[in-house]
Every structure is written in C-alpha cells, then in structure tokens.
Structure of Aspartate carbamoyltransferase:
Amino acid sequence: MKNSEIFFGKDIISLDQFNRKSVEKVFATAAKIKKTPTKKLLKILPGKIVGLMFFEPSTRTFSSNSAAVKRLGGQTVEYQNPLSTSSVVKGETIEDTTKMMEQYCDAIVMRHPIVGTLKKVAEVADVPVINAGDGIGEHPTQALLDMFTVFEKFKHIDNIKGLIVGDLLNGRTVHSIIKCLSIFPNNTLYLLSPKQLRLSNKDLEEAKKRKIKLIEIKSFEEIPADCHFWYWTRVQKERFTDKQEYEKLKLNFILTKKLVDKKAGKNTLIMHPLPRVGEVETEVDNDPRAVYLTTEAKNGMYVRMALFSLILEDRK
Amino acid sequence: MKNSEIFFGKDIISLDQFNRKSVEKVFATAAKIKKTPTKKLLKILPGKIVGLMFFEPSTRTFSSNSAAVKRLGGQTVEYQNPLSTSSVVKGETIEDTTKMMEQYCDAIVMRHPIVGTLKKVAEVADVPVINAGDGIGEHPTQALLDMFTVFEKFKHIDNIKGLIVGDLLNGRTVHSIIKCLSIFPNNTLYLLSPKQLRLSNKDLEEAKKRKIKLIEIKSFEEIPADCHFWYWTRVQKERFTDKQEYEKLKLNFILTKKLVDKKAGKNTLIMHPLPRVGEVETEVDNDPRAVYLTTEAKNGMYVRMALFSLILEDRK
Amino acid sequence: MKNSEIFFGKDIISLDQFNRKSVEKVFATAAKIKKTPTKKLLKILPGKIVGLMFFEPSTRTFSSNSAAVKRLGGQTVEYQNPLSTSSVVKGETIEDTTKMMEQYCDAIVMRHPIVGTLKKVAEVADVPVINAGDGIGEHPTQALLDMFTVFEKFKHIDNIKGLIVGDLLNGRTVHSIIKCLSIFPNNTLYLLSPKQLRLSNKDLEEAKKRKIKLIEIKSFEEIPADCHFWYWTRVQKERFTDKQEYEKLKLNFILTKKLVDKKAGKNTLIMHPLPRVGEVETEVDNDPRAVYLTTEAKNGMYVRMALFSLILEDRK
C-alpha cells in the first residue's frame, strides 16, 4: 500500500482519525510542497474544483484554503456566510445543500457554527469533506499546521515540551493540538489559564488515557525553561460573568517582550492561532522566535496544500 | 453552416429562441462534454472570463455556473447580491453596470429579481448574456438541463409523457419546460396543482398553439402509468390567502415512497429543481429513479458547460 | 538597469512615486498587453496569487482587478466588505489582517475607507501593495488608466489641454490626475465646479509648484475650444448644506448632447470615472467621442494588467 492511499478520497473531520503514520505523511508532504517551485505545483490539481462553504465568518481559514487550492492549479467555488444569502434562506437542509455542492466539486471544505455538523455532512457526501471548524468542536487542520510548525523547527514531534495559555475550555484548536501530540510519545504540555477556562475534567481524563502528560500551572512564574513552543490563545471576555474578574485575569495573561526575555528559551517558538485582540503585545512581533504572523500562518497554506494533494491528486 | 454557428456569440434569454436543431445541439454537446476527460476540458476556454452577476440569492445556479466555467479552463468575475453592496447602491443603472462588466468579460450570466431585465440587458450588451432567472419570467438553462436529463435517459425527447406537480402558475421553470417540450412532436404533460396555482388560461391557450398536449388532473389517483418523468415543484405558501387551505392542499401534494411505489413506472425519472422544503420526503432520495439530488443537479453543470462552450469557444 | 526594475516588487500607493519614465513604462506596457493574444497573456502570472481586500463597496475597481489578474493567468483570493464579515469583526487590526494575507499572496490590492491606511499597510507588508482607493486620499490606478486613455488617443501626454468638471474638492481621482499631468510639460487643466467644491487653496498652491497650469472657469461658456479631453465627475449632494443650492448648481453641470455639439472638439475624449448618477445624459453615450462606458473602462483592466505584470512577473 502506498502512503498516499491513506488519504486518497478520504474525509478530514477529526484528529481522532490520525495515527503516527498519517500525521507524518501530512508533515512530509507539506515540507516537500514548501520546497517545490511554484509552476510545478500547478500540475497537481488542474481541473479539480474544491467547494469552500463557510457558514460562519472567517478570513484566515477561508483565504488559506482558497490560496492552497489555487497554488496547486485547482479552482474553487466559494460561499461566505450563505446562512443569510442563499438556498439556506429558502429552508434547505445542510444535507441537501451538501449534495448539491458535491455534484459540481471534487471536494468540500466546510466551516459551520454547530458542533457535529461536519460529521453529519461527511456521512451524506460522496466526495471528500474537510472540517474547517465546527463550533467549539474540532479544527483539525489548524492543529496540524501548528504541530507542523513545531516539527519543521525541531525535526521531531515526540519528546516535546509545550506551553498553552488562555482559553483551554472552549478553544477547539487546543483540543485538537492535545489529540495531535498524544499520538507521539513523551510529550508534555503545560497549561495556564484562568480557573474558569481550565480544561474540563472530561478532557483531562481523556488525555490521561492517551498518555500525553498535562501539567496545570497557575502563573507565569511556573513556566518551565526551554519549552519547544508557547501557544497563546485569546481569553474570551464573553465567558466571564464577572467582568472585573476578566479584566484582572486578562492582564495576567498578556504576552509581553519582558516575559519572552525572561522565560522563553533560545529556540522557543512563539505561536498564536490568531486573530489576537490584545493578549499578545505587538512589541513581540519582531522577536525572531515569534512565528504567529509569519511561518505559522504560511504553514496553514502549506499543510492545506498537502491535504488537498493527498486527498485529490490523481496518481496514474 | 456549422452547427456551432447557431450559438457562437449569441445570448440565451428565452426558450423562444430555440428550435429542434439548437436544442439537439445543446444536448449532444452536453453528452459529449460529460464523457470528456477532465484535463482535456480545460483546453476549451483558457483565457476566457465570464461575469457572474447575481442580483438575487442563489447557491445552486450560481455555483453550477461558476464550476462550469472553471471546468472548461475559464475564469469568473463574481458578484453575489450586489444590489446592496456595490455601485448599484450609488445609484447606477443596470445598463451602466452591464456595460462596465462587459469591458472585462467575454460573457455575462445574470440573475435579476425583475422580469424582463435580462432582455433589456442583452440589448445593451455587446458580449453574450445568459439568463439565469429573471423574477417569475424564464429560467431557460434550468429547463434545458431538466429536459437533457430526460433525453439522456430515454435517448429521445419526442413522444414523452411527463407529470408536473406543484406551482404551475408562478414556476418559471415549468413555463420553460413546456416551451422546450413543445419544440418536439407528440409530447404530453399531465398537470397537477392546487386550483389556485393552475397554469394560467393564457399559458394554456399558448400551449395549444404550440401543439403540446396538456392534461390537467386533480389528484394522485389520476396519474397515468409509465410516465417518463415526474417533475415536482414547491407549492408556495406565500401565494395563499387562506393558510388553512394551503396546509390542507400541501399535504395532498407531498411525494412519498408510498406514492412512488404505487404510481411511478419502472423507469420514471423523479425530478425536482430544488431547493425543496418538505414537498419531497427524504425517504424517496435513495430510490434509484430519484435523480434530483444527483444526475439532475450534475447535468446542470454539464448543460451550462455545453452552452459556454458553444457560445464562447474559439474555433480556428 | 532594465525598465522593469522600476516596478518589480514595488508598492503603488500614490502618484507621487511616479516620474516621467515610470508613467511611460506603464503606458507602453498597457499598450503592448492590449495587443497581445489572450492565450499568450496567460503565461505572464501562472501560479501567482493576488489578494483583493476591499473594505468598502466597489464593483468596478474590484472586478477590473479580478479580471486583470485572471487574464494574466494568475489567481485571486477575494474579500468584499470584510469590515462586517470577518476577522475584523473579532477586533483584528488592519496590520495583522495584512500580515495574514501576505502569507498566502504574492501581492495585495486594497481599498479602504480611511485616508492613509494604504501607506500604513504598505509599510508593514513584505509583498507589493496596490492602493485601490483610500477614502478621499488617492486612487492612483484610476488616474493612470484615465491618462493612458488620453495618451492612447493622442500619442502624447504633454501639451495636453483638459477640462475637469464637478467635485474637485473631494474627488480623489481628480487629485491623482493633476499629479499625473504635472509630471509632463506644458499641460493645462480647465477647472469647472460649484464654488463649494473648488479645488482647495492648498491643492492650487501645490499645483503651482508642479508647473501644471490650472485655470478656473465659471460656466460652460468659458470652456475653451479643442480640449483633448473632458473629464466629468459627480457633484456630490451630501457636501451641500443648502439642498436648493445643490439642485440649482447640479443643473448647471449636466453634460448633454447639446453641450457636446456646441463645445467639444472633433477629437475631444469625453470621460467619466463612473458610476454616474445623472450628471451625464445617456443621449451622450453613443457619441463616438464618449469613452466612459467603453475604452476608458476597458483601459482600467489593461492598465492594471500592466501594473501586475511589471510588479510580479518573474523575469529570468
């Protein structure tokens, strides 16, 4: 069996589908595509059409998918926010809308506000479906691009020590990253969040079964030396009933140049899924270890190119 | 005269433009394109740009046109709902907006809420214009794709016996289908609708001149055996002043598995232009005769590819 | 130094960047592209992606840019009005949004409602940025396409006598045209506007330094014979506190067939950036000298193609 057969024609709905071999295949493909000349890439998906169905606002995920398809020589059929402007208005079910799209397209990328929609959609669709985020569910391609960024830097994705800061309760990317790192041995994640936004007990229990080591810490003081990566996320104001509590806590979790100088290692990657709204000071942007505005974002495109290529490329 | 000259550089505004020869040309071209390898299709419209101007919500017609152009190697310039987001806001006339678009594009596909707009637009435009639906006027490409689906199955489009159910008064597709079938000899359509939504006397009179046989029936009991196709449409709630009357009638016109088992022939195509909002039970979807979610929708793309190819392809 | 090196990898933010040599290069490139066969053009930008970020409604500039990229074989990633539908909603800064886009794209075209935004964006971006209009600031590509239209007709862009009518105070295109004509010797512009919408004293002073001759006139009577071009713009109702005054003045500045017959020269180009809302009568449209709906609009695409080609084309 060729490696590409792991993916050809398959859906990407959750990180639960992945094992060591398939994650490594995605990373190897992304790395290869990143080095391939522009014009050669155009020969990978000529004549393929990917439907981008975004039922929720998104610029980052939408545009990196759009660019990824086009850089491979494919084309897109695009919807943004059709909940208010399309057949959905006329009362069509998501299943019917999906069946319609798949008549025209070779694959579908969908973002939807309701958890579980993508699983349902993948069941009815005959073409491959890629989950671009469903509510507070999963966002598997974001986790893959983040962990690819770590892998690309350190050349391994086991024996990693990482720090995740912010909203661990609701952050779908955080959940997907924990799953991804659980696939590989000897990984440790330090978790720092307001107590209202700690990882749920259920998620903690599940992680134990997976054998990833999760260590909750309470302050910047406890951040260990030499993390491979720091992963900052937004502390979501709307989750707090006590706004003063929010304002107080928020200040405790702002990433500053001072903190980087004090606690980050020489090679620590400083990451964030973006958009940010104040929790990472712009003074950090030019630190060579900060990759959120550059490599991490760009890898979003390359990892998606890897997935499209693995799922859709004809191999004679 | 080569057949392609019937279409090259021409508008598609109404089925009134079509005769036996031109409909057969569209069908033959669609059938041929359907069998052509993906990469070969890309050589048909390289460098051609089609403007998709949709002044009314649409996902189905919009995306099948977008995919059709791109599968032929062409490109699109796309607007959705620009009535609220564009130059139209600044008070520009539809004629000026069209003249602008044609400077950038090789053809224009337009949907507009007002009947007759497409005729007006085609008059001012120097590039070919395709009507993608103007209010309750016509929707010629929908009728062509529906009748192509019948032709593809039975290999003829004369001596056809069809059933149309639902809103015959306002359904623009229904009007276009009647015109299309009138072009060929010995066709019979059985019409079933609430009495408020019967075909208008004017339309019935006109059909008589065209020599298509229209037979109005009053209930499912009267559906004849061995129809070539059943064509279901939405009964539009908004047309009824008496909502109880609507609810009662609606129930009489729901397509169920039971009805299919009882009244459909072995080869009867079960069709619907979609979206549906309850008038076709999902239990019918997996019946092999049901083509609304599959072949019929897919043929929408192929018939549009046929038209773009006939209208735009350079032939040296 | 090859001429193309003037532009390769550069931003286009203001006409202040241009000199005689660079304007002539744009015009020569646009003229050459206009004569190049469609399929050959596709070889200029294959594999290049241009991000179109329009934070303000636009159909004309948006679609001419979209078509320009695609006619050169490139692809676009497109946003329209993301101020209400995207990461911007989540509170992201324009700098972060730009940094994100440039990870996926080879260049960015942006329209933004706030003056000066494009300059700021170009400073943070590592890919070339093209200003597609920032508030009442500049709209350099519009001025270039307009002056290319004059150049194409008369084969020179010095010794030109032009007339500009309408809102000279707020019209960003007018300001850019004055700058463009100032680059070449012996140009004269006659300016006609309601006194509330006269060119500001600051702009008049600046023009003096630039050595373009500006002559304010007060009525149609004073329009000189044999202008090379007439450039009409919209008198903006919203600038007037006295609406009666507006209505009165507006009537004084409507371009009619009668005025063309009386005052235009045999070769005078009749121009308008569009959209128009009544200030140019449709009776003028078919006059062979009227180019606003045809050549002028089409040149918008060709000048943008020229700029994309100069900025982005790989030259081995």
About this structure: The domain at 15-138+299-312 of chain B is CATH 3.40.50.1370 (Rossmann fold). Chain B touches chain A at residues 38-39, 41-42, 57-60, 63-64, 66-68, 70-71, 78, 80-81, 274-278, 282, 293-294, 297-298, 300-301 (CB under 8 Å).
